[in-house]
Specification:
240 residues; alpha/beta; Spore Coat Polysaccharide Biosynthesis Protein SpsA, Chain A; 7-stranded mixed sheet; 8 helices; 9 strands; globular
């Protein structure tokens, strides 16, 4: 458990059927935590996995009994629900800040060190679109959607952020305490931005390099419903 009276960090990673990468993900993140200079733990939300992910997580737990926290959804509830459960656990464990990241390591866990240097902010977004940031190996279609979506988001949100759709971010845990997310999918990222804008969150960015998945397949799909879910929060932000 983290102390209520000092800076501390929970790294929240939702997983669903990630047996091919769960060990690599946990080993990599756990290798970085001692370098952060603040108390830190990894919270994995097993979102109803039906493969060997739960078994592997149980084995990993024996290696880090106090630093690896596992929360289980009996049935799959979606990416957004996984994040919501993770931040609730971080709040219960009194972590001052929460970093959300994906299990595929397309964002480098070494960047956690950069987040820790900005713990005086309410929200710190990892950005591919500022000096020092870049995208590597990502299909052109995804890059076009991302760049277009972020251009629109910058116009609508006006929070001084360049990369609104990147899910790699750190939030002061209490900023989200008690908040009930509506979205269950990837649009939770912009829903959260909309909520934090209304709360007048103090924001910053760090540069990161995003790579493409190589070991596992992405769960994200550019469906009309998904695109509209993102767009809705951008439009709502105009009036916030």
């Amino acid at each position: 458990m983290a102390s209520k009276f000092r800076l501390s960090l929970a790294v929240v990673i939702p997983m669903h059927n990630e047996e091919a990468g769960v060990s690599r993900c946990a080993e990599t993140v756990m290798g970085i935590l001692p370098k952060l200079k603040v108390p830190a733990s990894l919270i994995v939300v097993d979102d109803g996995s039906t493969d060997s992910t739960p078994k592997i997580l149980a084995q990993l737990k024996t290696k880090w009994p106090n630093k690896l926290l596992i929360v289980t959804h009996e049935v799959n509830q979606g990416y957004g629900a996984g994040l919501a459960t993770g931040v609730k656990k971080a709040d219960e464990a009194s972590f001052s800040h929460t970093v959300f990241m994906d299990s595929d390591l397309t964002n480098n866990p070494k960047d956690l060190v950069k987040f820790v240097t900005k713990m005086d902010y309410d929200l710190v977004k990892a950005s591919r679109y500022i000096t020092g940031g870049r995208v590597k190996g990502v299909p052109w279609k995804r890059r076009v959607f991302s760049q277009t979506g972020n251009l629109l988001s910058r116009i609508c949100f006006r929070m001084g952020i360049h990369d609104y759709t990147n899910g790699f971010r750190m939030v002061r845990t209490k900023m989200l305490s008690g908040y009930t997310y509506r979205e269950k999918g990837f649009a939770i990222i912009l829903e959260e931005m909309y909520y934090l804008k209304k709360k007048r969150a103090h924001c910053a960015e760090i540069p990161v390099r995003l790579t493409s998945r190589t070991k596992t397949a992405s769960h994200f799909r550019y469906t009309p419903a998904q695109i509209w879910a993102y767009l809705r929060y951008a439009l709502l932000a105009l009036a916030a």
